[in-house]
Specification:
The protein has 19 helices and 25 strands. Helix 13 (330-336) crosses helix 14 and helix 14 (349-367) packs parallel to helix 15. It folds into three domains: 4-126 and 250-426, P-loop containing nucleotide triphosphate hydrolases (Rossmann fold, 3-Layer(aba) Sandwich); 131-237, Domain 2, N(10)-formyltetrahydrofolate synthetase, CATH 3.30.1510; 442-524, Formyltetrahydrofolate synthetase, domain 3, CATH 3.10.410. Strands 1, 2, 3, 4, 5, 6, 14, 15, 16, 17, 18 and 19 form a twelve-stranded mixed beta sheet that branches. It is globular. Strand 1 (30-32) and strand 2 form a beta hairpin. It is of the alpha/beta class and 554 residues long.
Length: 554
């Protein structure tokens, strides 16, 4: 059987200039990066005046080692909509090198439902993440230089919250000491590294509407506090202009194609378990202005990426989804029902019935937004007709319908029924209702997320978190949207609680203010912002031959 990269490397690639033309872009509106990828100029498509297309949001159940295939279904659905005669574009996130070299592997779909050039997208692509890393660490260097040069801003080294970043999983860098080596080597202090996708600059890049919006947001970043506990911002360091210069190309959306040559925009890459988990507003809005249907996805399950897309991104995007697709697999649902990974190929309707409660909580959560919801069953060869029928029957009690897809093997033709259903429900009149209002207090927003989206009983704040909220209220930050930093594997903050646990409490240990992005991050459980490598990282299986052919990438 061919691997994903084998399929991608043998695919026919149409010149990116032709893909751009088919999408409605003029030659002067793109900047080709070689033969098969390009940047889209900010002063072109995003400024066009036309009725926006339909927005389809693809999300999923809580991820498991059994596999869900959300990106694969997203690509397959878009290709299916194109086959149905609808002008379609995809808007996805860029993969992070950390997971590519770590445990997850690539993030460009799979089988016959991929975006290409697969290897480039999963590796350095157009350099966006490198630019973000450079900008983030430039700010860190300027900050420490200010300490070294007499500390004119009176910054307390113990209250600096701006870490450094690297786009590689490296647990040894989570907590470090810097400034060692004497007076000429800086001011000694504790520091640490996050992964690049956890940088506030990543969140800002994906939420900015244009270059000046980006610059203004960068200037509002809080990097630490003075000795008398006043916030210090990038504006105080007078470096917003330099950071924006480093990001002037990274803010431009990237254009590529699917195996079926459907235009795809891939831009930005915040993780949904520590940030908002969606591609950029510029990418999504460009797709909406160029196509009849823009198919996008949110990271991890609907409890993380889905909720954040709807409550954080939608108000800035200015467009609500016309349809929501929740992806599930028989295998993953059985795993949520207690079946071990080595027994997933055996029919087990009892375990599936238990695991379906996970899907049910997601359907209930997404349904409360007032947008039509459809279920996509990403079929595996071992799935039985009885298992598929059980899922389809179960979803009906939530006012939704489930459709089997075979997009890995068949591409867009494997999602015809799903595409037809999406076309039908997207024409229905939606009554979008956000989960909370901007003026709601932070504790009320937190409880709304936990009770309505997760199915829990409420939120509990540590003494530190409560003290922070009290301080934020004095600073006027207490009404910002909430980004819950939580494990992706469970509705709770315990990754071992699969299925749909009840009567649990989410424990918030601290808040991280991200004024440039415009939200408060609630850190829960033991969530980490710098992952580590697994015992057998994917990097051990990746190789290249004398002809430059890459193997083992995915």
């Amino acid at each position: 059987m061919q691997t994903d990269i084998d399929i991608a490397q043998s695919a026919e690639i149409i010149p990116i200039t032709e893909i751009a033309k088919s999408a409605g872009l003029h030659p002067n509106e793109i900047e080709p990066y070689g033969y098969d990828k390009a940047k889209i100029n900010l002063d072109s498509s995003v400024e066009r005046k036309k009725e926006l297309g339909k927005l389809v949001l693809v999300t999923s159940i809580n991820p498991t080692p059994a596999g869900e295939g959300k990106s694969t279904v997203t690509v397959g659905l878009a290709d299916a909509l194109a086959l149905a005669g609808k002008k379609t574009m995809i808007a996805l996130r860029e993969p992070s090198l950390g997971p590519v070299m770590g445990m997850k592997g690539g993030a460009t779909g799979g089988g016959m439902s991929q975006v290409i050039p697969m290897a480039d997208i999963n590796l350095h692509f157009t350099g966006d993440f490198h630019a973000l890393t450079a900008a983030h660490d430039t700010l860190a260097a300027v900050l420490d230089n200010s300490l070294q040069q007499g500390n004119p801003l009176n910054i307390d080294p113990r209250r600096i919250i701006w870490k450094r970043v690297l786009d590689i999983n490296d647990r040894s860098l989570r907590h470090i000491s810097i400034g060692m080596g004497g007076p000429t080597s800086g001011v000694p202090r504790e520091d640490g590294f996050d992964i690049t996708v956890a940088s506030e600059l990543m969140a800002i890049l994906t939420l900015s509407k244009n270059l000046m919006d980006l610059k203004n947001r960068v200037s509002r970043i809080v990097v630490g506090y003075t000795y008398d506990k006043k916030p210090v911002t990038v504006a105080d360091l007078n470096v917003a202009g330099a950071l924006t210069v480093l990001l002037k190309d990274a803010i431009k959306p990237n254009l590529v194609q699917t195996l079926a040559h459907t235009p795809a925009i891939i831009h930005g890459g915040p993780f949904a378990n520590i940030a908002q988990g969606t591609n950029s507003i510029l990418a999504t809005r460009t797709a909406l202005q160029l196509a009849d249907y823009a198919v996008t996805e949110s990271g991890f399950g609907a409890d993380l990426g889905g909720e954040k897309f709807l409550d954080v991104k939608v108000p800035l995007l200015g467009k609500t989804p016309d349809a929501i697709v929740v992806v599930a697999t028989v295998r993953a649902l059985k795993h949520h029902g207690g079946v071990g990974l080595d027994e997933l190929n055996t029919e087990n309707l009892d375990a599936l019935s238990i695991g379906l409660e996970n899907l049910g909580q997601h359907l209930q959560a997404m349904g409360r937004y007032g947008v039509p919801v459809v279920v996509a069953i990403n079929r595996f060869t071992a799935d039985t007709d009885a298992e598929l029928l059980l899922i389809k029957s179960y979803t009906e009690q939530f006012g939704a319908s489930a459709y089997t897809t075979t997009v890995w093997a068949d591409g867009g033709s494997g999602a015809k029924d799903l595409a037809n259903a999406v076309i039908e429900v997207a024409d229905q009149e939606a009554d979008f209702t956000p989960l909370y209002q901007p003026e709601d207090e932070a504790i009320d927003k937190l409880n709304a997320i936990v009770k309505t989206i997760y199915g829990g009983s409420g939120v509990e704040l540590s003494d530190k978190a409560q003290k922070q909220l009290d301080e934020f209220k004095l600073l006027g930050w207490d009404r910002l949207p909430i980004i819950m930093a939580k494990t992706q594997y469970s509705f709770s903050d315990d990754p071992k609680k699969l299925g749909a646990p009840k009567n649990f409490v989410i424990h918030v240990r601290e808040f991280v203010p991200k004024l440039g992005a415009g939200f408060l991050v609630a850190m829960t459980g033991s969530i980490l912002t710098m992952p580590g490598l697994p015992k057998h990282p994917a990097a051990l299986d990746i190789d290249i031959d004398s002809h430059g052919k890459i193997t083992g990438l995915f």
